[in-house]
Amino acid sequence: MNPYPQRRVKDEDMRIGLAGTGRIGAFHAETLHRLDMVDSVVIADIDAPRARQAANKLGVECAASIDELFVAGLDGVVIAAATGAHPELIARGVAAGLPVFCEKPVAPDIDGTLAVLNAIGEAPVQIGFQRRFDAGYVAARRQVAEGTLGWLHTVRANTFDPAPPPAEYIATSGGFFRDCSVHDFDIIRWVTGREIAEVYAVGTNRGADFFRAAGDVATMGAVLTLDDDTLALVSGTRYNAAGYDVRMELLGSAESISVGLDQRLPLRSVEAGIAWPTGPAHPTFVERFRAAYETELQAFTRVIAGEIGSPCTVSDALEAFYAAEACELSRKEHRPVRLDEIRR
Description:
Layout (H helix, E strand, L loop, with lengths): L13 E6 L3 H12 L3 E7 L3 H11 L2 E2 L3 H4 L6 E4 L6 H10 L4 E4 L6 H11 L4 E4 L6 H12 L5 E9 L6 H6 L3 H17 L3 E9 L4 H5 L5 E8 L4 E7 L7 E8 L3 E4 L25 H4 L1 H15 L9 H20 L3 E2 L6
Parallel strand pairs: 1-2, 1-4, 2-3, 4-5, 5-6, 7-10
Antiparallel strand pairs: 7-11, 8-9, 8-13, 9-10, 11-12
Helix pairs in contact: 4-5, 5-12, 6-8, 8-12
């Protein structure tokens, strides 16, 4: 049911605003511009010249400011601004009666996320966890739900970046668990249909000094115990020079499957006579999840039209954030942490 029944938007008439034209914002603008169901895109940024440059590149409208964006006759708004601005922009979109899509995280911390959750009520807000829209993860979720694998005993999930982001990004990212591994935590919940009950996490730094200076880590590992006693092993690094590597393995009592095990896997076998995979590896997350990002925004247009509810809610984002917070506490205190210690 459409939470805003006064809105009756034809697919081909949608007018969508976008706040934030950094890397992911500019990518979302290009994706929205390509969608058949979107008639027009209006973009804005606190950096007005950057917004104009992005608008001119695509041939779309540019609002003079964020304030003007919200009075531009929109049907929905996509938020891809800096994390600190997310709560205010979500609130403004909801207050304007607009369905909202916001990149993760909802807010920089748990209290901010809870404040947003309490403020939005039943408003349609979709959070950007694009792995939920990747064909491989969708297929894995279906097989788990159908019981094809029997009962799960082990899940393995990894996110390996080919190179670290700039030092200034790390300083404000919130740390590896909140910025990067949170995607693994969300997709583990979504694919398995289970909640994370307990974590034990570690992290190390063997690369640039700016990770340690920011109180962050460059490589992490975590053991998650799900609420049905399935074990999930999560690993990640900023230094996987072979290429961008995101995978999941689900091992069950009847069968085992993998997501991301394809010809572009950045892993070389040393066994004799094995030439697979042939490559090339994905250089970044944009190439790996290009189709998923498009499917994600297509889903948002259906939220705007009132055809579906949010496929990734603020509550979902909060649960993944709880896991990230628990991992950070576990790393610092060198002990297992139950999520009940973190939840409020």
